[in-house]
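Session log. Operator J.P. requested a structure for one protein chain; no other inputs attached. Running the standard single-chain path with token output.
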Amino acid sequence: MKYLYVKFFRDLKKLWSQFFSVFMMAMISMTIFSGMNCVWNGMKASSEEYFADTDLADVWVYAGQITDKDMEAVRGLSYVKNAEAAMSFSVEGRTGKETDTELRVVTLKEESLRVLNPLIRSGEHYSDTDGIWIDEDYAAEHDLSAGDTIDVSINDGIFEVIVKGTVLDAENIYFVTYGTDSVPNHLRYGYAYMSEAYVRDLLGAVANNQIRIDMTGKSGVSKEQVRKDMEEVFNERLYSVSLREDMPSIWQVQKEQEQIKKMAVLFSIVFVLLSLLTMYTTMSRLVNNQVVQIGTMKAMGFYKRQIYGHYALYGMAVSLLGGSFGILAGRLFISELVMNIKKTTLTLPEWSKVLGTESAVLWLSIVLICTLAAILTARKVIKGVPAQIIRGIVEQKQKSDKPLKRSRLSYEWLWTLRAIKIHPARYIMGVVAIAGSMILMVAGIGVWDSINSSYDDVFKREYTYQYTAAIKKGGDKLLQQELADDNVQYSEAKTAVFRKNDMEKSGVLSIISDGTLLHLFLYESGEEQKLPANGAFITYRLAKQMGVREGDIIRCRPDTSAEEFQIEIKAVVDAKMPQGIFLSEAAWKEEFTPNTVYLGNASGYEAIEGSDLVTGLTSIDEQRENMDTMLESVRSIMYILILAALVLSAVILYNLGTLSFIERYREYATMKVLGFYKKEINRMVLTDCGLNLLTGMVLGVPGSLAFLNLYVGVVSMENMEWTPYISPVHFVTIALIIAIFSILINLFVCRKVRKVDMVEALKSVD
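Structure written below.
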């Protein structure tokens, strides 16, 4: 058996390029998938541990003037395990670095730690004393640490408060305070905690306005039931009820996990299938080119199991090694790159890298397929008689006895078409390589173009305001008076549940006042349309998901209400963000209380700059920059996928070109013996290349566009529609890259043909 090991290493040295291509394809496939797999499983494990460490609540209830009697009623509900009230309020923080900062403060007491237990990152542990615990990100931006002081402005009074320590809380993994922001701004906003006793000393009283509830493990209660119970307790004092999955911080981290998973899985399906098909073909053709060696081994008395084991080692060793290196590279580099981008929007105390069972399954699949390819190919040869196998004769299908017809085709075309007929697998793999390369590269670059195109639609076509701000509760009437002479528009956005028959979807209910700063366009015609006085418009993506058409009646229940109302859909509009339903102020049957103002010029900005009626005043350019920051993680993943697709395409095309040369070695030698000129042989090689390229492009163009549509639809966020798009320049560039590389590979083959040894290639095996 040791001689077979010697032969294996000699073959490895002689055919290193083919073995290396299998190694590379296995490594690249595992690098991409395992790297992403580490991220989404790691985020899930880290966030769940974070939830447990901070005793994250199950339900948040927001209401006015919560009393001890209210708390008794809430604690008396059958599904409530623990319930604690707290006061949440905003203060202006002055650190010397940035005067215009805001801290959202929540009161704490010993009992609160059962449902609200922030992680102490530095400084003192919580105690019922004077001072403030501020979030770690805000402290880092303002160079604050335990023992420093910070000035806070509360009710027109300024107080110097000692920083007791820094904290992190799972409620604020994704800390965005206002709807006008899309990414956390730790320089401007932060969260903090003060003891209830200290707040009472500062303000004179504590007015609790929120409750955190820890539910019993087997409650199985619905959000509707919780809200109904809370309405019975608080009546008109109830503001809203949110379950854990409704909290922006919680669903944001879950959505980003799902997005990474979808991007990795869907891209890897094409990526890995193309790799596996190529690896299978490569291993089959490598073994198939060793017919004489197999016959020699049989003639020398090697057992079948020894020969099977020898060729199984071909596939197993290389794919096992490639997969192992891929897992290591994915964990070290790909996961680190993606996590570093995610850290710009999400805050976790620890970022774990957890390799899931999905990676192990893929790794074993690659090894199994490569090993089986070698064994099954060897089996076809081993079945023969040694005397025939050693001469290179393998049992084949009976050739047709029909006389050959003369053809008007040139010899290079006849040679190419006959080669396809004799070796269809070789031709199919060439076509699959071209089409697969185009699909992967179009998907990578196309998602990039789709994101940019969609956000251009949002910030240049759908929204034409210059500034926007969130309106503080109760300040809408005064604000409308202050901005009466300015070009402004208002909206009231509510999270809502929409139902049609058995279909239910969450989205945003937007009530919009008259104005010229927000624009809606019909999906079919692209014509701008004003909101009607009766009925509503629905976004195309939501309409498609729910099966809604113009004229349909759907039911809507805002999160701030327990009652549903019906809405007639007047039109389907091409609105990218937010996803939901739009109503005019006239069509809204309740009181219009806007929570966002849009400003069309600088005079409006100057009028409310520094006003106590608004917060989060920002420009549309800043919004676009913030959105670009949030999407940087998606773009980084696209960088990885585009590079991987390019490398994989190069490896596959090079591998197929080299294998084709090895298989046709004797054919090229025969042509040289018969007196064919170099340019004639080169023309045959390039004709074969051109046919593969043309067929691959014909299949790849529609296939890549169809896959891009599917891919963009799957990886899009719920609150934003990305329209599939790839620029013509990028599409043509991809096609040219694939064509040029394919031609270069075949020119390399032409160069190798010149070095064919005619005597050695045509030497008899007898």
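Operator note: The chain has a mean pLDDT of 84.
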